[in-house]
Design brief:
single chain, alpha+beta, 2-enoyl-CoA Hydratase, Chain A, domain 1, six-stranded antiparallel β-sheet, six-stranded mixed β-sheet, 12 helices, globular
Amino acid sequence: MVVVWALLALLVAAGVVLGSHAVSRNVLRTALPASVAEVLLGPEDSFPLQEEVLDQLRSSFYRPIETDELIDDSIKGMLSGLEDDYTNYLDPEQYEGFKERTNGSYSGVGMTVEMLNGYVTVVSTFKDTPAAKAGLGSGDIILAVDGVDTEGQDLDEVVSRIKGEEGTEVTLKVYHVPPGSRSPADEAGVEPHLPEGGTTEELVLVRRSIVVPVLESETLTSGGRKIEHIRFVTFSEDSAQRLRDAVKRAVEENGASAIILDLRHNGGGLLNEAVDVASIFVPEGVIVTTEGLHSPRQEYEARGGAISTDVPLFVLIDGFSASASEIVAGAVKDTGRGTLVGETTFGKGLVQTILSLSDGSALKVTTAVYFTPAGVDINNQGIAPDVVAPDDPVTEDVDEALEKALSLAGQR
């Protein structure tokens, strides 16, 4: 032990300050007995090389560095190695914004976006919001926000830059895809690219307080029968109860003989809300099953209180129906409770879990795959409709998919 303390004295005399440099700590940790090293130096760093790089930058880089920003960037770089668009790091500000959007209100421009084939793509816009009034529509691609390219940025980072204080401006560089086109699908040996024939536009939008609409309902008629068409916008907190109330009112008070649940342009949301929504129509049995390496297999069953199965159900879907929308669509299809009308869904069969971190930030991590009641993994495949009925974007005054569902409902 005398030798150990003599060694320490020599090191200090030589100008090596304990604990101040990663290189010094690593040298000492190697030279000292483990028990002594832990007492003097503390527990071993999980990422000693990262600390060493930061030390070298602090002492060598030609201008001051923002250590916190570099650490954030290093976390994002680590996550990018997973090659999963849905696993992201949320700094404290982004995490607060995420919680706001989940609760159904925030300050921004009024649209939902998703990462499609590497592009930040508009899924839907909300009625009478800055995004809708500016002409943004489903399939449009956000190329830049306030002059900063979105390429290489994760989705939550882009969303946090679009959001902001009410009354402030945000400039979006937008690529309007040609009618009927979407972000290009992956092709073997071909890099993702913008659809040909579109136009690029720069839009200056004024942010405002946005209350995300949960649903819009209208009573239509077909074959002399009342049909309730309910456009369900988002699976946010308590949205399932709002839908349940609307369905009950339509059937019991308005005399609707069938329900058309419109999940087009619905990019999803909370898993529990999806199970609750499906339970409005599916009386019993498994709604969805999730399973991952660190997430034991879990079956989510119908929660009771479903409306009568004598009320026909038609679910409208398209290529922008994703995640929670697909949980509902899969449950309806596999249980035979209703008829899917429209186009094949997006194909996001992954479950994300929010893991809070000590500094107020969080990780949004893909923790499991989900399976429909029949055990189907729809990830990257989507759910095919029972009745194919694409909505032709050229005929703006006609909704072909809705018309087809109305026709089918009128025949029951």
